[in-house]
NAD-dependent dehydratase (Cereibacter changlensis JA139), 327 residues
Amino acid sequence: MLKKTSEMTVLVAGGAGFVGSHLCEALLRQGHRVICLDSFLTGAMENVQALCNFREFRLIRHDVVDAVELAEPVDRVYNLASPASPPQYQADPVHTMLTNVLGTKNLLALAAANGARFLQASTSEVYGDPEEHPQREDYRGHVNCTGSRACYDEGKRAAEALCYDFLRAGSVDVRVARIFNTYGPHMQANDGRIVSNLIVQALRGAALTVYGSGQQTRSFCFVSDLVAGLMALMEAEERPDGPVNIGNPDEFTVGELATMVQRLIPNGSQVEYHPLPEDDPRRRRPDISKARELLGWSPQVPLAKGLPETIAWFSKGMSPAPKLDPV
Ligand code: NAD
Ligand code: UDP
């Protein structure tokens, strides 16, 4: 049940996206006023449609590459504005880089002007194709800085650098979350990521596209766990020193994920192998000791529970609809 009193005004850049829309809902449930700022590049109106009925929710269409000015003060800024799916962030790589560099700088400037706390949605992609496993925050990564993923990986790395420059200058209280692969309701059916691709393919009885041998691994975090981790990091009284990994350390091969989807959606879909994309990381798994220790956070939803929930959501015709009672 939503609280009736507003506590803080929170800006969520990228709030109409997959993760951002869940974050906006969770913040509203805590009684905050939420400003969702989004260009709708990869987000969807249906993700936030139900939230628009609430007086504590405001939606602004804006590209963060352009300076961000608001008519009202804000207490918190979450920066989630960036395409996250490889085909989507590679579709206009220059804009992806500018979104992460100029966009982050514009939002940091807004936070500085407001005295607001800032959380940056960074990514496990800053570790590139990692040579250390699992990945701890002090691992400096193995990124191809001229490859087709660089617009995102290097954009996010530059964004982290900007965050800590603003922090060192004393202008903003900054927290950086390195997010690992996340899945759940509100993913776009056609966004090209593995979980949505496999579910949509299986529901249609089509072939399941596995890139490469399927032996590469990922560690999949359910979206409610991620949102809880982001909020815990933002509200931690003591700011963690440096970035914090937020993800689920249970590691699966892509082939294992395809088999799970085949079992959960027995439509006769067979695996079809496709070439591995350039610079596709071979292994990825977060070390989350830091989040456990400093935030008291750990994921609660295993893939065996989150995957059926996600399938159920896609089966309902990808309807959005967070069920909130109007206030
Ligand atoms: P998404 O594509 O669903 O959401 C991103 C949102 O940002 C969209 O609503 C999009 O329209 C908006 N956006 C993009 N460029 C913008 C711009 N220039 N100006 C304003 N809005 C813009 O992606 P997501 O999965 O919800 O990811 C959210 C954030 O988390 C991203 O920053 C992403 O890099 C990070 N992240 C996500 C994952 C994951 O597995 N989902 C993993 C690592 C990091
Ligand atoms: N992948 C796949 N089939 C698909 C989409 C992705 O096999 O239809 C693979 C991809 O090559 C990668 C993994 O699944 O190894 C995760 O891909 P995703 O795009 O979801 O996220 P990434 O971790 O690569 O950013």
DSSP finds ten helices and 13 strands in the chain. The radius of gyration is 19 Å. Residues 1-5, 318-323 have pLDDT under 50 and may be disordered. Residues 9-186+222-247+281-300 form a domain with the Rossmann fold fold (CATH 3.40.50.720).
